[in-house]
Amino acid sequence: MRLTNVAHLRLPFGRLLGYDVNVGAPGRSLPVSFDQGRHVAAGDRAGSWMALSFRLSRPVPLDELATAWLAVIARHGTLRSVFVPGEDGEPRLHEVEILPGEWALHSIAPGQAVNDALREVLDLACSPYSRPSHRLCVLETAVGPTVVVAADHSHVDMWSMLVIARDLLTALAEVQDGRAPSLPPTPAFAEHTRALRDRPAAPPEVHRRWAEVLAASGDVMPRFPLPLGPATLQQERVEVRDVLDVDDTAAFSAQAREEGVSTLALVVAAMTEVTRSLAGAPLRAVFPVHSRYDSTWHDSVGWFITNSVLESTDADPRASAEAVKEAVRMGSWPLEDILHPWGGMPEVPGMFAISWLDLRRLPVRVDATGLEAQYVGASIRTDGVMLWFILDESGLHLRCRYPDTAEARRHVGAWLDTLIFHLRSRARESVGGRLRLGDRTYRVQRAGRTDVPALVVLLSDDEISRPREGAELARYEEAFDAIGRDSSHYLAVVRDEDDRVVGTMQLTILPGLSRGGTTRLQVEGVRVLASERSRGIGTAMLEWAHEHGRHRGATLAQVTTDRERERAHTFYARLGYGNSHVGLKRTL
Q1: Three-state DSSP class for 14?
Q2: Quick check: 287 pLDDT over 80?
Q3: Sheet holding 305-312, edge to edge
Q4: What is the three-class DSSP state of 547?
Q5: Is there a cis peptide before residue 132, judged by omega within 30 degrees of 0?
Q6: Contacts of 67 (CB under 8 A, 6+ apart)
Q7: Could you give the residue ranges of the DSSP H alpha helices within 133-262?
């Protein structure tokens, strides 16, 4: 699921509505976390919210959507709390009663973009002291609504937005079935704040490392290591990039496993190398870590994120892995005590933060692809650099926000370009694409258009195939283009040490309902150059194909081969393929 910005969000045109709940008077006092206090103390302002959007496939009555939304609010205590300015200037948090309300139509002025109209609504409704500081919005169209749920950051994090979306969809399904929504209770974020305050004080070595990292940054939080221009708030520049597709992500992760580290650690190693190369400095950054220490909080909504600092001085992957582990340890203690010598978090212009979220590992899931779900950030003015990485089933994505100055465009842009080039190079050179056979090394890669002539030669390289091939090259190139447009296909080439194409196969991922919703790996067009046969290349190719299928969620592999290819039948049987089905073909 991509992390985008409200200005970049893809929205249909339709009626923009928001649900106005009724809010009771502030009641019981609740504890305020360190990060909540820091965020809310900055006061009401535009752009302090985060949101998630998704599309429903058919129209939904607004009263049903409102009923489901109220069930979500009833489940999560932080959505039933509001901040109030204290007499001493410090924010106070209070419980409130949330009651049903009514839908309000928000106008979209002539010539106004839908995104701008939505942004205005959320800037007003989801500021720190709003009551409540969250909002359910809908863009109604004839084919179905686009739903946007948003809240001030003091009440949510990115994990929480998934919980809210999942709970809203669950409650809506129950309402549409004619039942009252029955979301089970879950601990409120205020309980987590109390539990965190009751934790023991951080040990001396944690205080020491915080002091060392901050001292190396000038006794402030780490800053981006290259010039950004004037140290004042500027209009933001937001870049959203797809870094690695699903196959390159698999290759990159395979390299990480080969190095004995996590995918995150290998990315940190790349950032360390790029920072050292471009800035001549170690990688130092603010590093958010989550505080959902156990499953108690997995279904709760709140700001379960605290900040740590990451210092990576060595681009060796194992050293970077240790830097990540240290950052997680340093962020596992209450920050108020740790940062007391600095009078709180010593923020300065130019602050550099790196956030990492692997959606594949979260215990909360939604059908992001089917729902066209997107994380949505607000538009703000900024003086620092914030980098978000999102890893999901479609690959590795990033969003970067920085001041829109000439210096920042040049330096942050160069840093990002170099980093992405480095990550893609590591994926292409990954051990995950190598086939080692004795003293020979082959490489599996996605075929390029210039490989088509060589592939046609391979496909024609036997008596059975030759009569079926031989069309004009343009026909093959058109077919190649069609394959490339569909990410479920992987047309592979195998190259030897001299970059010569010696093998090919087409792999296709086929989701299905049968066999309990089994996803299949279809293997077609397996060919090995005649001069390279009987060396084990075919076996290595199929083993690579099986791993490719597993990474894409396939649990069953299937292959078709001509009835006359008796040697191929023996080959596939040796690899565990059973001759249990009859394959039928006809010409259309």
Answers
A1: coil
A2: yes
A3: 305-312, 283-290, 352-358, 385-392, 395-403, 234-245, 381-382
A4: helix
A5: yes
A6: 171, 175, 181
A7: 158-176, 189-197, 204-216, 246-259
Q: What is the pLDDT of residues 181-236, one digit of tens each?
A: 999 999 999 999 999 888 888 999 999 999 999 999 999 999 999 999 999 999 99
CB atoms within 10 A of CB 113: 13
**245: burial class by Cβ within 10 Å (0-12, 13-18, 19+)?**
middle
> Is the pLDDT confidence value at 115 over 80?
yes
At what angle are helices 158-176 and 62-75 packed, to 10 degrees?
130
Rounded Cα distance, 518 and 521, in Å: 10
User: Do the beta carbons of residue 434 and residue 255 sit within 8 Å?
Assistant: no
Are 556 and 518 a contacting pair, CB within 8 Å?
yes
- Per-residue pLDDT, averaged over 119-125, amounts to 97
What is the rounded CA–CA span in Å between residue 443 and residue 502?
10
Q: How many residues in total does the chain contain?
A: 588
The backbone torsions φ and ψ at residue 162, rounded to the nearest 5 degrees and listed phi first, read -65, -40
Position 16 confidence tier, pLDDT thresholds 50, 70, 90: very high
- Residue 470 region by backbone torsions, left for phi larger than 0, else alpha for psi between -120 and 50, else beta: left
Based on its alpha-carbon atoms, the radius of gyration of the chain, rounded to whole angstroms, reads 27
At residue 288, φ and ψ (nearest 5 deg) are: -65, 135
Q: Measured between alpha carbons, how far is 2 from 397 in angstroms, rounded to an integer?
A: 7
Cα–chain center distance at 221: 25
Whether residue 238 has pLDDT greater than 80: yes
Find where tokens 């089905």 sit.
581
Handedness of CA 137, 150, 1, 423 (dihedral sign): positive
